[in-house]
Design a protein that fits this description.
- The chain is of the alpha/beta class.
- The chain contains 11 helices and 16 strands.
- The strands form 4 sheets. It has a 7-stranded mixed sheet, sandwiched between helices.
- Helix 2 runs parallel beside helix 3 and helix 6 crosses helix 7.
- The longest helix is centred in the N-terminal third of the chain and has 20 residues.
- The termini are far apart.
Length: about 375
């Protein structure tokens, strides 16, 4: 079932608004908490654009569709939104879902500004229709691999589920670590229980375990098993995809969820715009905003700037990615063509490796910044 259109910021729906479609995971098995943060950022920015006069006097209207982490559902939503006459599509958190949406948008000639998905191969061939704010997986995960080496880890196990995204992540880690003396041991979570994972870690003498798995299942049971196993008291767990970012992680794991480094895409210090948006997002969410909420805000800030010059014409919008120069919450946003990446790419957002402080799990510690 499709989510009904969700106007944001008091826009009119009589045909005079500039409509943009938003793809967001709002129900399971999608990562609902990430979807809620992404939508909060999108909606806040739409409200501010409209408070400032909209798109050349026309209000911006957000038409939301729940992808529920389903690629087929996302592709169907892109078809529907194109038929509704949206000027562009934005959003999505899950990489495999965003890939399906990008392919459909490219086929339809519909601009798609991807907010959060990082899979390098967002499209199979170069396209003018798609641009992305999140860093490519290869960029962020190589930074994470360097962090592991710097922390003294060279025997690294990855607990991985079957997925294009997880397989890509494991390959990036392996290819980056091998020439530097690192070994990646892959543990198939399609065949292992959390308890069996512990036995494998001992057998392979791994010093680090990376969780390339879904949240909360099986990530939470794996963490609990490892934390209970006296043989693994010294092992470091990591989650490059960012599972510990959200409050649900602490609610489920408490102190056991601390000290697990992950990637997030924020600067060490927010500028004036970022600080103002952080305050507004905190009020809207009732909790500290994740980097995903900032990605949502920046998405609309960029697209609004493009739409003011393109007038909402799809072809003119897609031709404008190369001319973007917008001050976002995390720095100036410009798009370029990056070797090996088939979409217009912001190269690069700030990247941090952070964890939750074991002494105070609600607080984040910056362990490495790029």
């Amino acid at each position: 079932m499709n989510t009904p259109p969700s106007p944001s910021g008091g826009e009119r729906t009589d045909g005079s608004s500039v409509r943009i479609g938003a793809l967001v995971p709002l129900t399971r098995p999608g990562w609902v908490e990430a979807g809620r943060h992404l939508l909060a950022g999108l909606e806040l920015a739409v409200r501010e654009v409209n408070d400032a006069g909209g798109i050349v006097g026309r209000p911006l209207e957000l038409v939301v569709r729940d992808t529920a982490a389903d690629p087929e559902r996302a592709a169907a939503a892109v078809d529907e939104l194109a038929g509704l006459g949206v000027a562009a599509v934005v959003g999505e958190y899950h990489s495999v879902v965003a890939r399906a949406a990008a392919a459909r948008a490219d086929a339809l000639g519909l601009p798609f500004l991807c907010s959060s998905a990082v899979l390098d191969a967002l499209t199979d061939k170069p396209t003018q229709w798609v641009a992305r704010l999140a860093p490519a997986q290869s960029h962020g995960w190589q930074i994470y691999a360097d962090f592991l080496l710097g922390a003294g880890h060279s025997r690294i196990a990855v607990a991985a589920q079957p997925s294009v995204y997880w397989a890509s992540g494991a390959r990036i880690l392996r290819d980056h670590l091998a020439p530097r003396g690192g070994t990646v041991i892959e543990l198939d979570m399609g065949a292992l229980t959390p308890t069996a994972v512990c036995d494998e870690l001992v057998h392979h003498r791994a010093t680090a375990l990376l969780l390339l798995v879904g949240h909360p299942e099986p990530a939470v049971p794996i963490v609990r098993s490892v934390r209970r196993d006296q043989r693994l008291a010294e092992i470091m767990m990591g989650a490059p995809a960012g599972q510990p970012e959200f409050a649900e992680w602490v609610a489920l794991l408490g102190d056991q969820g601390a000290g697990i480094p992950f990637l997030r895409y924020l600067p060490e210090r927010l500028g004036p715009l970022g600080a103002r948006v952080e305050t507004a997002l905190r009020e809207r969410l009732g909790e500290a905003p994740s980097f995903v909420a900032f990605e949502g805000y920046d998405t609309v800030a960029v697209l609004a700037d493009v739409l003011r010059s393109s007038g909402g014409d799809r072809a003119r919008t897609s031709a404008s990615w190369s001319r973007v120069a917008v001050e976002g919450t995390r720095g100036q946003i410009r798009f370029s063509r990056v070797p090996g990446i088939n979409v217009w790419q912001w190269a690069w957002p700030p990247v941090q490796v952070v964890d939750r402080d074991p002494a105070e799990p609600a607080r984040f510690r910056i362990l490495h910044a790029d």
